[in-house]
Design brief:
There is one protein chain. By secondary structure, this protein is an all-alpha fold. The protein is built from 14 helices and no strands.
Amino acid sequence: MDKQNSRKTIRTFAWASFFNDMGSDMIYPIWPLFVTTVLGAPMSVLGFIDGLGEAVVSVSQAVSGYLSDHWRKRKIFIVLGYLFGSLSRVGYAFSSIWQHLIPLKILDRAGNIRGAPRDAVIADLSTQNDRGRNFGLLRAVDNLGAVCGILICIFLFNTAGYRHFFLWAAIPSAISVLLIMLFIKEGQTLRAKIYNRLSFKNLDSNFRLFLAASSVSALGLFSYSFLLIYARDNGFQIGYVPVLYLIFSAVASLFSMPFGTLADKIGRKPVLIASNIFWGIVCAIFIYFSNRYAVIVAFIFFGLHRAAVEPVQKTLVSELAPTDYRASYLGAFQMVIGLCAFPASFIAGILWDKFGIQAPFRLSIGFTVISTVMLLFVKEKTSEN
């Protein structure tokens, strides 16, 4: 594919991601309040549901990544992923007890079957000199969609209420489905199957070390819902909680592409280490400060963390993976990280209920320090796959 068509494909993916994240983030700021206040679930249940969602993300990406490489098909997984997200929000609108949310959350997060196949296409269309920038662009537009979704939430939620608002949030993802169906064509390079069997027993030690370091970090990265509930319990009225998520998303949108570009210039590891430092600052603020200004600063650093970690992790994984198995490696990586996120949120909820609001943040700092030390020993690839 020539450079112009490559850029067009990446822009289409970016716009589809924009609309999907707009729909997702229309409901993200009110999600923990809906679960705990409207449906009456305790914090441990909120942690369980959110953690289960991350586990489903992980498994769905691993399965879709492997099948996408084996069948050499990407588009079908991307279309279905956006469709699942849209349908799940319709289901949320009709939920009357928190138990209804479990299968719907599974459907919602199974929508991430789009992730590994899409990321593999972006990696294939990029070079080592612009791969970080391209993944950063995708995350920047993702987060820009989140900003728009949160603004819609702030200005229209009180008018619509929970039920109608969930139905409205299904529309943007339906637009994403149309964009992919109309403007993305399956590339000729994806027509032939790969018959060589992929075995993860053959992963090199460097990739395993990076996977282990990222897994340890993920064990401390519980759901954003805990940060929003913390803000509510420390002086922020319910109507202002979405504003904090807006701050986070705006910062993540502004800095994702610069961090991706910076990773192209100075390497992937320094940016990833910086992301761990940002998260450590978030935890420290929530442990030692409880005023409103400190909470706002914490959400700014939370945005910086996400802006640095998400595009650069994908960039490094795609470069450490064999070219023919990028979707499989990206999916497997997300599977392991997601499986770690499940106990992270669940344990955080239990610690919150049993030992108080600061306990999960203290545990998270410990995991983050260990992950950073491990990351120091990871070696980056210096040549294109």
